[in-house]
TrEMBL record, chain A:
Residue ranges, compositional bias (Acidic residues): 437-456
One Gene Ontology MF term: metallopeptidase activity
GO biological process per UniProt: proteolysis
Keyword Hydrolase part of the UniProt annotation: yes
Family classification: Belongs to the peptidase M16 family.
Entry-linked Gene3D superfamilies: Metalloenzyme, LuxS/M16 peptidase-like (3.30.830.10)
Region (Disordered): 430-456
Domain Peptidase M16 N-terminal: 28-167
Pfam families assigned to the protein according to its UniProt record, in alphabetical order: Peptidase_M16, Peptidase_M16_C
Protein name: Pitrilysin family protein
SUPFAM superfamilies (UniProt xref): LuxS/MPP-like metallohydrolase (SSF63411)
From TrEMBL, chain B:
Gene3D superfamilies: Metalloenzyme, LuxS/M16 peptidase-like
Region named Disordered: 1-23
Annotated TM spans: none
Protein name in the entry: M16 family metallopeptidase
Any one Pfam family match given in the protein's UniProt record, by short name: Peptidase_M16_C
Organism of derivation: Streptomyces plicatus
Coiled coil: none
Residue ranges constituting the Peptidase M16 N-terminal domain according to the UniProt record: 38-166
Alphabetized InterPro entries for the sequence: Metalloenz_LuxS/M16, MPP/UQCRC_Complex, Pept_M16_N, Peptidase_M16_C
Length: 456, 462
């Protein structure tokens, strides 16, 4: 595609630059200056996620992330939250399949505090970690699981589909929230071992973005993080590679108390960081992103068989990505009606490829999403860490949108033809049941397919 | 191996010199057609945000047609005199734009976000939607059916189900506020394109509307742009609609919406109170933050960080509708969810937190941290154009001056512990709170009754 429809000359990077540094203990540092607003974002990615967990300890990476807010050698109790918020900052941490991130956005003059806090827990968490925190946060996380997954309609769909899409024993077979049984089974010693294994400066990337003096910032980072010893206890995660296609359609029917029938599916797609993944992103946007997409036009506007229909992409670097289809049916419409229409649309798309107009729309949508992400210092800091941790090069964050704009219609068609096929998907069908009796306290319900767990 | 780390420790650093920041002041003007325009240049913000406020409040909906404002709002993006519904959606997305439209008690609000380089085209589409919406029979019929399909999904969501029940409890049955904003199955089914057009013709006109434009406006001739787009929208003159007072019954009582088998109980505990026109607002914001603004506030310090009953409980004040004469109101509420077996103990603790606060008041340290947070986060919170535009639009919608938010930060900084305590205690009096619990009545009713926080009734989840 020509680049004629880019929104800015720099197509999303907005003239931003980033510099890279490495401390002697292996901590990688990325700095990016932007003096438009007096704020600074600190983002720390640890190269550990739920894919590193072992059988019987699902949810440990996320539970551990909560424990990181329970104090360290020089920070008492909830001091991390109190100090950041008291300084006019905002903060949180999240856990996904592939990484755990912690972030503070501060008024620029409070940047040093955030660095001090992150260093204190990277170097000395175990000085404060005790049974009381462990028991308390175990209960909090179980309530998080209930609130976000178990107590809302379709809430466990993501967990079910992931388990179908990645085979038993695969590192992505389970989601970051983990199971109730495993959360119950985790011990304080598990948490300590997890910290000793994964929370090392040489297993992390720190980015600082915003109204900063790079020289001073680097000096503070050296001062606070420089003496934290590195260690090499970490084993690489289990291999996540799988054949390009599933080879058969996997299927599960869930009978539950939900408001309407639903058809959800996960297609196996190329790994993040590849041009084919960007092509898949465009294919899913043409097919199911927004209200001018093929599936929306077909199912919601024309056939009127669905309340909502859309595609999303879960980008993964260490295993195939997932193309995520979610359709809630209208009225009494049966699932096969929807499924036939989807198969027709996907087959037609594979045969014809996207039109020039569809490419233009999809690229414009993805470009705006990138502008949004890079439009805040926190978003930029997170993307710099992402590319540094997953792909070894933070600079790739600043050119990501260009790569999406360079993908051709032929490449989009190619990935659709190869991957968006019935024999390359896991399907989850919801059939509503009558309201439950009061016996079944373990009924599974809930909403969004969020792959992140947050501490706050 | 010792658990004491081997790193070098340093004392907690002191803050540097704060850099000045102020909530941006918009430039106010109007177009020849009477449309009020607020604009604000935000360097570096490549995605421009445009908010359009229409004086089409929910209480203007005709009897039996609750939801017509919502259907109208949605129908704005379903075709114009130039484009069919599908074409309109495609053209917007071709600009890389998003357009949302929401109908609420104060009026209808359209929110456009688009890269600055394509603002002209997107503003043209927005203007077409306002000036000449198609409201085609088939499209409106589809939106109505779609809305009817959404309702069961909302009722199955514990948080939304709780909100619906609280409105029904608090407000008199003949008040629009007592009923769902987007209508019920009965009322939505009555809506057709004629009803939408009638509502539009009666309530939508540039003379009573405001547009807010925020973003990096470098190199844009915004006057010409607006003149060519929103300037082409015409309509008769009209006086702003009178705003009816908000009346609420906050006698302490408990309603359980029965959801057998639920593993958690959704809590929504609320009443109404002063809005931003009241002098108490800054103190109320401050006190409410201390009560339940974050996980280190009083409620979560006990319910989450000590007891582990919840993922988080928040207290908040949210303006429902304001009037120029100050007779508006805000919803003051506490919400969250707790596991089913601990519902009784969690509510008991929650009431203890409220009573302790009323008896002992806030500490100076709590007040200081709250001020530092609420004032300090402003530059972070208002980094994007959309955030600034949203607040500027809120101010207009609530009949506040354009420098309200800037002044609020100064007032917060000047509010003392005693005022913040008084405000939060009068915002959340223990005997004047309506408690809605969406959960398993068979398991939670008896423990809740034992607390003595008001008469307990049980209703079906439907």
């Amino acid at each position: 595609m020509p680049m004629g429809h880019t929104a800015t000359a720099q197509a999303g990077s907005g003239g931003l630059t980033a510099t890279e540094h490495r401390l002697a203990n292996g901590l990688r540092v990325v700095l990016s200056e932007d003096h438009l607003t007096p704020v600074a974002a600190v983002c720390l990615w640890y190269d550990v996620g739920s894919r590193h967990e072992v059988k019987g300890r699902t949810g440990l990476a996320h539970l551990f992330e909560h424990l990181m807010f329970q104090g360290s050698a020089q920070v008492k109790g909830n001091g991390h939250f109190e100090l950041v918020q008291g300084a006019g900052g905002s903060l949180n941490g999240t856990t996904s399949f592939e990484r755990t991130n912690y972030f503070e956005t501060m008024p620029a003059h409070q940047l040093e505090l955030a660095l001090w806090l992150e260093a204190d827990r990277m170097g000395s968490l175990l000085a404060a970690l005790d049974d009381e925190s462990m028991e308390n946060q175990r209960d909090v996380v179980k309530n998080e699981r209930r609130q976000r997954y178990d107590n809302v309609p379709y809430g466990t769909a993501f967990e079910k589909l992931t388990a179908l899409a990645y085979p038993e024993g695969h590192p992505y077979h389970h989601t970051p929230i983990g199971s109730m049984a495993d959360l119950d089974a985790a011990t304080l010693e598990d948490a300590r071992a997890f910290f000793r294994t994964y929370y090392a400066p040489n297993n992390a990337v720190l980015s600082v973005v915003g109204d900063i003096d790079p020289e001073q910032t680097l000096a503070w980072i050296e001062k606070y993080f420089g003496s934290i010893p590195s260690h090499d206890g970490k084993q690489p995660p289990r291999d996540g590679s799988l054949p390009d296609v599933m080879g058969e359609q996997l299927r599960e029917v869930v009978e539950e108390e939900v408001p309407a029938r639903a058809l959800m599916a996960a297609y196996r797609l190329p790994e993040d960081g590849t041009r084919a993944c960007d092509a898949a992103d465009l294919a899913l946007t043409v097919l199911g992103g927004g209200e001018s997409s093929r599936l929306y036009n077909r199912l919601v506007r024309r056939d009127r068989t669905a309340v909502a229909a859309g595609f999303g992409l879960l980008r993964l670097a260490g295993a195939p990505s997932l193309g995520w289809l979610d359709v809630k049916t209208s009225g009494d419409v049966e699932v096969p009606v929807i499924e036939t229409a989807i198969d027709e649309e996907l087959a037609r798309f594979a045969e014809e490829g996207p039109t020039a107009e569809e490419m233009e729309r999809a690229q414009a949508q993805l470009e705006r999403e990138w502008l949004d992400r890079l439009g805040t210092v926190a978003g930029r800091a997170d993307e710099l860490c992402r590319y540094a941790v997953l792909f070894g090069d933070p600079q790739l964050a600043l050119t990501a949108v260009q790569r999406v704009l360079e993908v051709t219609a032929e490449e989009v068609q190619e990935v659709a033809k190869a991957r968006l096929r019935p024999d390359n998907r896991a399907v989850l069908v919801y059939e509503p049941t009558a309201p439950a009796d009061e016996t079944d306290a373990d009924q599974t319900d809930a909403t969004d397919e969020n792959d992140e767990e947050a501490a706050k | 191996m010792t658990e004491l780390a081997t790193m070098d420790f340093h004392p907690q650093p002191q803050a540097g010199e704060p850099k000045p920041w102020a909530f941006p002041a918009p430039e106010r003007g109007s177009l020849d057609n009477g449309l009020t325009v607020l604009r604000c240049h935000r360097p570096g913000q490549q995605v421009v945000a445009v908010e359009v406020l229409l004086d089409a409040p929910l209480d203007a909906e005709p009897a039996g047609l609750d939801g017509v404002a919502t259907i109208m709002a949605r129908a704005f993006s379903e075709g114009t005199d130039k484009h069919s519904a599908e074409e309109f959606a495609a053209e917007l997305e071709r600009c890389g734009a998003t357009l949302d439209a929401v109908a609420d008690h104060p009026g209808v609000r359209l929110s456009l976000e688009v890269p600055a380089s394509r603002l002209a085209k997107a503003l043209g589409l927005l203007a077409d939607a306002l000036r000449a919406p198609a409201f085609a029979d088939g499209e409106v019929e589809r939106l109505v059916r779609n809305r009817l399909d959404e309702i069961p999904h909302e009722l199955a969501n514990p948080a939304r189900r709780a909100a619906k029940e609280l409105s029904k409890e608090l407000f008199p049955a003949d008040s629009r506020m007592s009923r769902p904003r987007q209508g019920t199955e009965e009322t939505v089914a009555n809506i057709d394109s004629a009803a939408v057009r009638t509502f539009y013709e009666k309530h939508v006109r540039p003379a009573t509307a405001t547009a807010v434009v925020v973003g990096d406006l470098t190199g844009l001739d915004l006057d010409a742009l607006l003149g060519d787009t929103l300037g082409a929208w015409t309509g008769s003159a009209a006086e702003p609609r009178p705003v009816p007072p908000v009346i609420a019954d906050d006698r302490g009582r408990v309603v359980i919406v029965d959801r057998p088998g639920a593993v958690q109980t959704q809590l929504l505990i609320g009443r109404t109170g002063p809005d931003r026109h009241d002098r108490v607002w800054p103190a109320q914001v401050l006190g409410t933050y201390c009560l339940g603004g974050t996980l280190t506030s009083r409620l979560d310090r006990v319910l989450r960080e000590e007891k582990g009953y919840t993922y988080g409980v928040r207290a908040f004040g949210q303006v429902l509708r304001s009037a120029p004469d100050g007779t508006g109101a805000a919803m003051l509420a506490i919400s969250g969810s707790v596991d089913t077996p601990n519902t009784g103990p969690a509510l008991e603790d929650l009431w203890t937190v409220l009573r302790t606060l009323a008896e002992g008041g806030l500490t100076d340290a709590e007040r200081d941290v709250a001020v530092q947070n609420l004032v300090g986060v402003a530059p972070l919170k208002y980094e994007t154009a959309a955030a600034v535009a949203g607040t500027l639009a809120d101010q207009v919608e609530q009949h506040l001056p354009d420098d309200y938010q800037a002044a609020l930060y100064r007032q917060l900084a000047a509010t003392g512990t005693v005022e913040a305590t008084a405000a939060v205690v009068s915002a959340f009096p223990v005997d004047r709170l309506v408690t809605v619990l969406v959960g398993d009545a068979a398991q939670i009713k008896a423990p809740v009754e034992a607390l003595g926080i008001g008469e307990v009734t049980v209703v079906a989840a439907e």
